[in-house]
Every structure is written in C-alpha cells, then in structure tokens.
Specification:
The chain has 473 residues and is an alpha+beta fold. The chain folds into three domains: 158 residues, Beta-Lactamase, CATH 3.30.450.20; 86 residues, Orthogonal Bundle (Helix Hairpins), CATH 1.10.287.130; 159 residues, Histidine kinase-like ATPase, C-terminal domain (Heat Shock Protein 90). Helix content is 56%, strand content 16%. It has twelve helices and twelve strands. The chain has a five-stranded antiparallel sheet with strand order 2-1-5-4-3, sandwiched between helices. The protein has a five-stranded mixed sheet with strand order 7-9-10-12-11, covered by helices on one side. Strand 11 and strand 12 form a beta hairpin. It is rod-shaped. The C terminus is likely disordered.
C-alpha cells in the first residue's frame, strides 16, 4: 500500500497535479486562441478563393469558354475540399451547383449579392455541430451570361481542428509520461537525504551513536544533514559522559559505603579495640561527608539542568566569608599539609552584592580543587583585590594544567588526571562554579603553567558602588 503521507509521494503528486493544471490551462487558452485564429484563417482563405473564382468565371466568359469547361475547372479547384459553389441568375434562381449540394443557401444572402450592396457577404454559423462559412459575391462581366451571383459554402474546420486537438493530446500524453518519470526520479533524489536521516535517527535511537548521514549536497538539506551529524556527535559525547559519570559516581558511592558497611559490621562484631574506635569513627565521618558532597553536587546539577538554580543577591562581607571558609577547611589543610593564606590589598573588609551562600559554594569548590592538587608543604592563596569590581583569585602551586586541557575542565562529568581531577571527585565542581558565576553575570578566568601551579580568578560587584547608583536613581 502506498504511503501517501510520505514527503516523496506528496512531492510526486504535487508535481503531477501542477503539470495537469498547467496543461489544462494551456489547453483552454490554446483552444480559445487557436480556434479563433483558425476561423480567421479559414475565412481569409475562403474569401480569397471566392474572389479568385469570380475572377476566373469573368475571364473565362470574356475569353469565350463554355459553361461546361468552366464548371469542370471549378470542380477541379475544390476537389478533395469540403467546399461547394452555388451560382445564381439575376432573379436569384439557382442555375447549378459545384460540389456538395446538401446545404440550403438562404435566399436573402443571394439577394444582397445581386443588389451589389457589398462586394462580398460573409457569415459563419453552426450546422449539425459544424462551423459553416458562407460567402456571397456578385459576378461582374461584360459577357452575356446568366451567372450573376456566386455563393461559396465551406466546412471542414472541425476536421482540421480535431486533427490538431488529437496531435495536442498525443503530445500532452507523451509530455506527462516523460515528466512523470522525471518527477519520480527528482522526488526520489530530493527525499533521499530525508530517508537517510530517518534511517540514521532510528539507529541513533537504538543507541548506535556512531551512525552519520552521508552528505552529497550543499543546499538546505545538506546543511540539515551537517546539523544532524553534529547532533549525533554531541549525543555520542553526552552518552560517553553519562557512562563515565555513572561509573565515577558508582565508584565514589560504592567506596565509602563499602568502608562504612565494613566498619559497622566490625563494630557490631566487637572486633575493633576500644582505643581504635575513635579513629574508625573519624574515617566513617569523612566518608559520610564525602557522600554528602557528592549528593549535593548531583542535586545542584539536576537543578541547573532544570533551570531551577536561582541566586538571591544581598550585601555581605566578602572578607569575612573568605576567613570563615578558610577556618572551616582547616582540617583539610592539615591533612594535606598545605598552608592557606588570605591576601587582601585593603585593610578594611570588602563588601559585595551577590548571593552569599552560592559564593561560599564557589570559594569552597575552588579551594578544595586547589588543595587536592597541591603538593605537601605548598601554599593555597586566596587573593582579594578591590578595583572597579572586587577581584577574587585562588592560587595553588601544584602540577598545573596543560593548555590543551583548560577548555575541557568546565565540562560536566569531565574527569581526567591531566585535567586536575585525579581519582577523587566527580568532575562536577568546576561546572557548578562556572554556572553560579554565570548567574551572577561574572566570568571566571584560569591561568596555568605546567609544574608551576594554577590561578582561578572571578569578579563580583562592589556593594558601595551599587548603593551609590541606587541613591542617584
């Protein structure tokens, strides 16, 4: 059964309908215009033939020819033609007829010709569905002859016109057949990329993200194919990131859960000495905090993807917030044997207009990232500068990031040792940081040199400037 709803059949039927409509309009115009032109040509030809017949009769009698010779000559002149001559005397009586005698001539036509009111009287009418052309003319001659008027009746127009219509119909059928084949091929060619995209889309839907559309044109369909391939490439990348993310999250959840489960069983079995219990409680606490951070990061990513992560700007003391974050993270600094420093060019505290909870999250993530990759006995610096805006920098002296990897560190789920993630974390922290700063309309810059460390820098609006602007307004 034909799938009429497909674009191929819609195109094919549309093209054929356009062809039929065009031929129909052409046929009507051709019929109207050509029929009138054909009638005019027949009329002119019959007029000329009638005038020639009159002149022939006049000359023949002037030359002394007999009526028999004249009649025979006229019969030869209209042989194989749908025409006839009617000759009348001065009283309007029919003397003789040459050709078909089935038509009855109106005597009024003869009377007007005999009165010589006009050289030729012409009219056309339809008799039994056929166009009949009638022309009458007086015969002027000095010879003493009976013939004073001649009437010519001409038909056969329909025969010629029908023959032309037959040729036109035959040409139309041939044109439709050839054009239909060409249209079928053209529709197939136009819809081929769409069928290819449909095939590839079904393969991608089944998880085969390596499928690509073969592009053979540079038109709109070709561009659509390029976009389709780009989409497939992005889906393949997202699918790979999803797999990596599931693997990373599974590992990061399984490891602390396994540790906690083992320690709980050991506590229940009383196999841990009393003096070591506090040590294992501390390990369990660290593993729990690790899972809590992972879950919080996952919740933030879910809110980001749903567009539900919002900021609530407020004026707060950024200097105090940084000091609290550093103090709160003191155990991590001690554990990693890293020194933490807060460097500010201003002796007074700096106030900014931003969401304090989200900025706290940004600073914590950046400091944790710096501590994670700092070597023992190195430093992590938090630098505050007050310019047109407040410039916040977090600097470490770790292994640094290669230049070709910097563009990837902001990608969600990106996790590679050369991108400073090693075997901890899920690769979500920097992506969350960048999105939070985007919501603050603040950009974050990163400068790094392999072997010499990395510095992350972002800016926040100064609260005093904002207050002054509000007062002026």
């Amino acid at each position: 059964m034909l799938r009429i709803k497909s674009i191929f059949w819609k195109l094919l039927i549309t093209y054929i309908l356009i062809l039929f409509v065009s031929l129909f309009v052409l046929a009507i115009a051709y019929h109207l215009l050509f029929l009138n032109d054909l009638i005019n040509k027949h009329r002119n030809a019959d007029r000329s033939q009638l005038e020639e017949a009159v002149q022939y009769i006049q000359k023949s009698y002037n030359n002394g020819w007999s009526r028999e010779i004249i009649v025979s000559s006229l019969e030869l002149s209209i042989a194989n033609q749908a025409k006839s001559f009617y000759l009348y005397d001065e009283s309007g009586t029919l003397l003789y007829q040459i050709g078909d005698a089935s038509f009855h001539v109106n005597r009024e036509i003869v009377r007007k010709a005999l009165q010589k009111k006009q050289p030729t009287h012409e009219l056309s009418e339809k008799v039994k569905g056929q166009h009949i052309f009638i022309a009458a003319s007086p015969i002027k001659t000095n010879a003493p002859i009976e013939e004073k008027a001649i009437v010519m009746v001409s038909s056969g127009l329909e025969k010629e016109f029908n023959h032309i219509k037959y040729l036109f119909l035959l040409a139309s059928i041939i044109s439709i057949a050839i054009t239909s084949l060409f249209t079928y091929y053209l529709s197939k060619r136009i819809t081929a990329p769409l069928r290819e995209m449909n095939r590839v889309a079904l393969q991608i839907a089944r998880g085969q993200f390596d499928q690509r559309v073969k592009i053979k044109t540079r038109d709109e369909l070709g561009k659509l194919g390029e976009t389709f391939n780009y989409m497939a490439q992005e889906l393949a990348g997202l699918d790979q990131m999803r797999k990596d993310f599931v693997a990373n999250v599974s590992h990061d959840l399984r490891s602390p859960l396994t540790s906690i489960h083992g320690f709980v069983r050991a506590f229940l079995d009383d196999t841990i000495p009393g003096e070591r219990k506090r040590h294992y409680y501390t390990i369990m606490k660290e593993q729990t905090e690790r899972m809590i951070k992972l879950v919080n990061d996952l919740l933030d990513i879910a809110r980001i993807e749903a567009g539900q992560l919002e900021i609530r700007p407020a004026i707060f003391n950024l200097s105090e917030l940084v000091r609290q974050v550093v103090a709160r993270m003191e155990p991590e600094f001690v554990k990693k044997q890293v020194n933490a420093e807060v460097i500010s060019e201003k002796t007074q505290d700096i106030h900014v207009l931003a969401d304090p909870d989200r900025i706290d999250q940004v600073i914590v993530n950046l400091i944790q990232n710096a501590v994670q990759f700092s070597s023992p006995d190195s430093s992590v610096e938090v630098i505050l500068k007050k310019q047109e805006q407040v410039v916040v920098s977090i600097r470490d002296y770790g292994p640094g990031i290669r230049q070709e990897d910097i563009q990837f560190i902001w990608d969600r789920f990106y996790k590679a040792d050369r991108a400073r993630t090693k075997k901890t974390g899920t690769g979500l922290g920097l992506s969350i940081v960048r999105h939070i700063l985007d919501l603050h309309q603040s950009d974050i810059q990163v400068e790094s040199e392999v072997g010499r460390g990395t510095i992350f820098t972002f800016t926040l609006p100064i609260a005093q400037n904002k207050l002054k602007k509000n007062e002026k307004e």
